[in-house]
Design a protein that fits this description.
Phe_tRNA_ligase_alpha_bac/arc, three-stranded antiparallel β-sheet, BirA Bifunctional Protein, domain 2, Phe-tRNA-synth_IIc_asu, EC 6.1.1.20, aminoacyl-trna synthetase, about 525 residues, binds phenylalanine
């Protein structure tokens, strides 16, 4: 025997071929025929076994697939073969009742509702009757119908397992096309499979005695107690055998990314916070020291709400007003401010949050004096909204993940170290940092990752919150902040080039992702 181990089923299949070859020099057998052999028993088993035998290391057989189109009668079609086409049923009815004409309305008693219109059309087309003033007037009841002949032919061909569409001439094919539209015939694709010995396969069955010993795949107590184990052949375990692919139920890829990122952050000591989708401009922009005339607030980027168009804002708005207008925290001047007139009415306007930085800043604002003394590490993962046209890289709704560290003595270097660690844990080995600008952080940075075949890609924005952001909240310690787009992350993980793919729920992709 050659240098590979054969599974019992493989031996059985080869044995069938060996007999066919010895008797009639046959090297090719249909899967259907093989399945009927008692050594096999089912088409699935034949196919599975043939797949093993055709694998790279053996190549003893080839699987040959012949695709063909076949014409079959539908359930409706079968009825029509018995009773005639609907127009024939009308004609028969008239013959039986000796009628020369009937009102169209009466068709409802003879035929199914859905068949009335097609029957009328065909009565006219086939010149069986003409229609005048709501009456069907008979012209020729003894007609021959090529469509019915074709239906009969299909029935007979089906009985003889001869349904290939190629058995019909062009005229018949046209008729079949019509009958298919009327729902009496279905065209289906059929795959005819056969297994054929390769040269190597032929050599093999010529030169080997194929011995089939019953095998067991599991040793039981019974085998041991009875001593049967001495005669048992235990099937060796082969992890390389190709098998049917199975797709178990699983979470949506986007949910999986979210869960993975959560796990990484929780592992790094962060705590999750959640916030509502609808925010005031106060929390979405003002507190983050974004001036009220900042272009990002423009209609183009932000979704403003009509109902309710105003929300509540805290007393603290006075402090925010003062930092925006004059750069003052209480009576201490910490910066130039934006030097414009801050409008509390604008602060009250409602928006769909445009970034998760809202969650970070709301958390900081919620701390009591005592809590402010302690270090904090929090993150949030949430949907954010931007009024952008949908294309391969933009959706009006997407996921962001955002986090902060508040602690005495932390600085920019710690932020870089943290982000490198975070991105490493997400599977990106090469990370590089570039300077960037955000209205609420100074200094600010962008982190890029290197992806094989795509180069350096920007993934993350970060920085140290400006004093103008944290000091009005009574926080005098550094706060490191960062935000990352999760859709980008998901696209990289699954090699997508179009963000829309993530939400199409295309089953084939979902199964394999
Ligand atoms: N909020 C920023 C990201 C960011 C978060 C925190 C600090 C710096 C930048 C964005 O949406 O792009």
């Amino acid at each position: 025997m050659e240098d590979f181990k054969l599974h019992n089923d493989e031996k059985k299949l080869l044995k069938i071929f060996q007999e066919a070859y010895d008797n009639k020099n046959i090297t090719k057998l249909s899967v259907e025929g093989l399945a009927k052999n008692e050594l096999m028993g089912s088409e699935t088993k034949v196919m599975r076994t043939a797949l093993w035998l055709s694998a790279e290391d053996k190549k003893l057989v080839n699987i040959i697939e012949n695709k063909s189109k076949i014409a079959k009668l539908t359930e409706e079609g079968k009825k029509v073969v018995e009773k005639g086409l609907p127009e024939r049923q009308v004609a028969n009815y008239m013959i039986e009742n000796d009628l020369k004409n009937i009102p169209i309305k009466e068709l409802g008693n003879i035929l199914d509702k859905s068949e009335v219109n097609p029957a009328l059309g065909n009565l006219k087309k086939k010149k069986i009757a003409k229609i005048e003033k709501g009456n069907i007037i008979i012209e020729n009841l003894q007609y021959e119908d090529k469509e019915e002949n074709t239906l009969n032919k299909i029935k007979i061909n089906e009985e003889n397992k001869n349904s290939d569409l190629n058995n019909y001439n062009d005229e018949e094919k046209k008729l079949i096309n019509n009958l298919q539209k009327r729902g009496f015939i279905a065209i289906e694709e059929e795959v005819d499979r056969a297994i054929e010995l390769t040269e190597k396969g032929i050599e093999f069955i010529k030169n080997n005695i194929i011995e089939i010993k019953e095998e067991i795949s599991q040793l039981t107590r019974e085998h041991i107690v009875s001593g049967k184990w001495k005669d048992c052949h235990i099937r060796p375990y082969d992890a390389k055998i190709p098998s049917e692919e199975v797709y178990p139920a699983k979470l949506h890829p986007m949910t999986r990314i979210i869960n993975d990122v959560k796990e990484v952050l929780i592992g790094m000591g962060f705590k999750e916070v959640k916030n509502p989708i609808v925010e005031t401009e106060f929390w979405n922009f003002d507190v983050l020291f974004e001036p009220q005339d900042h272009p990002a607030r423009d209609m183009q980027d932000t979704f403003f709400l009509r109902y309710p168009n105003k929300g509540e804002i805290p007393e603290m708005v006075k402090d925010i007003k003062s930092i925006h207008e004059k750069g003052m925290v209480g009576d201490k001047k910490i910066s130039k401010g934006w030097r414009y007139e801050f409008d509390e009415e604008i602060s009250k306007k409602t928006v769909l949050r445009t970034h998760t930085t809202v969650s970070s800043i709301k958390y900081l604002a919620s701390l009591t004096d005592e809590e402010k003394e302690k270090p904090h590490k929090i993150f949030s993962i949430d949907r954010v909204f931007r009024n952008e046209a949908i294309d391969y890289s933009h959706l009006p709704e997407f996921y962001q993940c955002e986090g902060i560290i508040l602690a005495e003595g932390v600085h920019f270097d710690n932020l870089i170290g943290l982000l490198k660690e975070f991105l490493n844990r997400l599977g990106f080995e090469q990370v590089r940092i570039r300077p960037a600008y955000f209205p609420f952080t100074e200094p600010s940075l962008e982190a890029e990752v290197f992806v094989e075949g795509r180069g350096w890609l920007e993934l993350l924005g970060a920085g140290v919150f400006r004093p103008e952001v944290v000091e009005p909240l009574g926080i005098n310690k550094p706060v490191l902040a960062w935000g990352i787009g999760l859709s980008r992350l998901a696209m990289l993980r699954w090699g997508l080039t179009d963000i829309r793919e993530l939400h199409k729920n295309e089953l084939n992709w979902l199964k394999k992702a």
